[in-house]
Amino acid sequence: MECVVCNKPAMEEERFGDYADFDCDDCGKYRVTGTVLGILDRAQWLRTTAMQQWIAEQHQAGVERPIINSANAEYEGVLYR
Ligand SMILES: [Zn+2]
Known about the structure:
Layout: E1 11-15, E2 19-24, E3 28-33, H1 34-41, E4 45-46, H2 48-60, E5 67-68, E6 75-76
Bound molecules: zinc ion.
The site of zinc ion (ZN) has 8 residues, from loops.
């Protein structure tokens, strides 16, 4: 599966009921909620630069695996049609 942040091939380490964990060479480790994955399935995509920056900040702050959820995800493209 591709990294949902930068679209490069990435490891999807584990998928739980409502989460998926990714490990990307460029973005690092992060977790995505099922809600966000559902939106991405509907042809939305994340703002790569903004989300990579946010993940990097979380990593620097000591968060091992930041969680991308509805509250902090930034999308590009049309959200609702
Ligand atoms: Zn990535």
